[in-house]
Amino acid sequence: MELVDDAIRKFETVVPFGEEAFMVLRAHLLVEHHLFAYVSSRVADPEFMKEVESRYSPVGSGLGLILLAQALTLQ
């Protein structure tokens, strides 16, 4: 639960109230950052992580990254 509380505190610090477009963008980037951190913590191969983080990776962002993180939870 501490991890969730830390994420909420970070979210409140980073994402200002108001200016909805910037708020949504910053929230998206924060969630993506945490997904990358989660995937990195579950993957032992640094070369694979370079591929995931590459610009043209199909799992580098969005739904692909979410599905990769979900698949890693099922191991």
The total tally of domains equals 1
| Helix run count | 4
Number of strands: 0
**Helical/strand content category:** mainly alpha
Mean pLDDT: 82
H-E string: HHHH
Distance between the termini: 21 Å
Shape: globular
State which percent range the strand residues make up: under 5%
As residue ranges, the low-confidence spans are: none
Helical content band: over 70%
Biggest sheet character: none
- Rg calculated over all Cα atoms: 14 Å
Walkthrough of the structure:
- The chain is built from 4 helices and no strands.
- It is an all-alpha fold and 75 residues long.
- It has one domain (2-73).
- It starts with a helix and ends with a helix.
- The model has no long low-confidence stretch (mean pLDDT 82).
Topology record:
Elements: H1 2-14, H2 20-42, H3 46-53, H4 62-73
Spell out the key features of this protein:
about 80 residues; mainly alpha; about 0% strand
What's this model, at a glance?
75% of the residues lie in helices and 0% in strands.
